[in-house]
Amino acid sequence: MKSLVVTAAILSVAVCFAAPTWTAQLTGVPARLRGVSAVSQRVAWASGTGGTVLRTTNGGDAWEVIAVPGAEAMDFRDIDALSDKTAYILSIGNGEASRIYKTTDGGKTWSLQLANKDPKVFLDAMDFWSEDRGIAFSDAVDGKFAIFSTTNGGRTWSRVPQDHLPAALANEGAYAASGTNVATLGNDHVWIGTTASRVLHSADRGATWSVAQTPLPTSQSAGIFSVAFRDPMHGVVVGGDYQKEADAVDNAAFTADGGRTWTLAKGVSGFRSVVAHRPGSKTEWIAVGPQGADISTDDGRTWRPLPGAGFHTFTFAPNGRAGWGAGERGAVARLEGF
Predict the structure, then answer these.
(1) CA pair distance 308, 302, nearest whole angstrom
(2) By C-alpha distance, which of 105, 48, 102 is closest to 78?
(3) Full-prediction pTM beyond 0.85?
(4) How far from the centroid of its chain's Cα atoms is residue 144's Cα?
(5) Sequence ranges of the domains in the chain
(6) Average pLDDT over residues 114-120
(7) Share of residues in the chain with pLDDT > 90 (%)
(8) Hey, CA dihedral for 149, 151, 152, 158, is it positive or negative?
(9) What is the CB neighbour count within 10 angstroms for residue 160?
(10) pLDDT in tens, 196-226
(11) What's the CA gap between 61 and 162, in Å, rounded?
């Protein structure tokens, strides 16, 4: 009887600490992938350098390479998919290199929706409340934040008036590293994480804004790289110094008051470029960076390493039963076992 009790205890501990596992998938492209977005357990999109756009409709068993005419040299740092047919992609760069395209037919055709002409604008990321309503963030221009929004499916993008925005700090912008430093929620909320480790928040789709400082350190290569919220009150930011990826010092913080105040988390293993809440769970989060990943089961307060490779970006399927990481040399892997 004693041996059975001991065995049961060991099995119980093993189950409690069983970690999700990564399964590598083949994309056939050499691109650096920094955008990924899943709309189901079977449908996901990814994007990256060299005008690369990928889509799977069978859970990643095969990835289709999709051409975007006239964008072969673009670096698509963000992709937001709304369905198997509809997706937005954002390219980075100064001036006209910063663009937003949209497809509504699975990538057969694309419309150039935000054709930026301002040489000082440098788009970093975007996010969407719905297929018709979205928001995009640029590095500050002449000391003022540059935020664009659309309410008509992207047919037109308008810059948020400066008198609606807080003042930008010197050289404040965002790291275009994973397409996740802009996070929308529900019908109205949006948060933006900046290079100065500050979080901008609007509860009315960009009409008015507040700003809060987080305790993440800042430098020319450090700050917030990703922000996510599971509800209007609970969120996590991650980052660090991308030139010191192994450093595990103050690389994550959490909030329980909508982002007004932030507290440093413990246990993040190094620089992390993306954080995501697992849908369907109340307190489970994944943080991923080029050198590895971490998991939290207490709402971002403490973290432990998640075995496996590292990636630049990550997305969960809406049901939270699977996710995809994407990174260097066309690397994509599916995360399962939750």
Answers:
(1) 19
(2) 48
(3) yes
(4) 24
(5) 22-336
(6) 96
(7) 93
(8) negative
(9) 19
(10) 999 999 999 999 999 999 999 999 999 999 9
(11) 46
